[in-house]
Specification:
Layout (H helix, E strand, L loop, with lengths): L6 E5 L3 H14 L9 E6 L1 H10 L7 E5 L15 H7 L1 E5 L2 E7 L4 E6 L2 E6 L5 E7 L2 E9 L1 E5 L7 H4 L11 E7 L10 E4 L4 E6 L6 E5 L2 E3 L2 E8 L5 E5 L5 H8 L3
Parallel strand pairs: 1-2, 2-3, 3-17
Antiparallel strand pairs: 4-17, 5-6, 5-16, 7-10, 7-14, 8-9, 8-13, 10-11, 11-12, 13-16, 14-15
């Protein structure tokens, strides 16, 4: 990447992100995305996920600058020396999960998730889930508020707040984590190979409705959810040197 780097800026709707968009566009221009070398996303982690989904298949690297709250996937915001920062940035490649959910009407819903796919109870009573891994039943009944499958990149998000493990970014594993498990009472989840096919089947559907969520895109009244990693889909994230995902994941475990 050189001084002639063509940047496509994207910003969340928040006033602070929109102000940053205007300021950066004055300094560096704003190239149409189909002619850009890199995308710079201005917002928080949620907006970064939106940007990654929107640019899927384009092959463009995405460099985020934090104009949101947490900013785990973002770099520090600065107007100065953006071309140099992007040119020196370290690239991390992550793969999303694919969710295939079937609802009560028999309709299929496919979604991709960079962080996690989660199943959550949608009524007053706990969910009852049957869990199969690669076609083999592993839990005949999990009574819980929900369960999720997280990627290494997403392991510090919802998964971590549900007391799931933080996964090294290069690990070929996924985290299967329960939320507020009631039965089995001591079950805390599992680590699965990245190649695993995870299937949830919802029990007592009418009495205990469940919704599925893939990076905040929801499907209600699901009867089954199949989850696989999509190694053929690559998202390219850029981080300032010394502040990549591996360092951030490690740092999170000592705070």
């Amino acid at each position: 990447m050189t001084k002639d780097l063509k940047i496509a800026f994207r910003a969340s709707t928040s006033p602070v992100a929109q102000a940053a968009l205007q300021e950066l566009s004055r300094f560096y221009g704003n190239t149409p995305i189909d002619r850009a070398d890199v995308v710079v996303a201005l917002g928080g982690d949620g907006f970064m996920l939106t940007t990654l989904h929107e640019t899927e298949g384009m092959g463009l690297p995405v460099y985020g600058m934090n104009r949101g709250t947490v900013g785990f996937l973002m770099n520090e915001f600065s107007v100065i020396n953006l071309i140099e920062r992007v040119s020196r940035a370290e690239e991390e490649v992550i793969n999303p999960l694919e969710m295939r959910a079937i609802d009560e009407a028999g309709e299929e819903h496919r979604r991709l998730a960079i962080n996690e796919v989660s199943l959550l109870r949608a009524g007053p009573q706990a969910a009852k889930l049957r869990i199969l891994i690669d076609g083999r039943e592993r839990l005949d009944e999990l009574v819980c508020d929900g369960a999720l499958v997280a990627t290494p990149a997403g392991s510090t998000a919802y998964n971590y707040s549900a007391h799931g493990p933080i996964l090294p970014i290069g690990a070929d594993v996924l985290a299967l984590t329960a939320m507020a498990a009631f039965r089995p009472r001591r079950w805390r989840g599992a680590l699965l190979p990245k190649t695993a096919h995870v299937r949830f089947e919802v029990l007592e559907i009418a009495k205990r409705p469940v919704m599925a969520d893939a990076d905040s895109r929801q499907v209600r009244n699901v009867v089954s959810v199949d989850i696989r990693s999509r190694g053929d889909i690559r998202h390219r994230l850029l981080f300032d040197p010394g502040h990549g995902l591996e360092e951030r994941l490690l740092r999170e475990q000592f705070v």
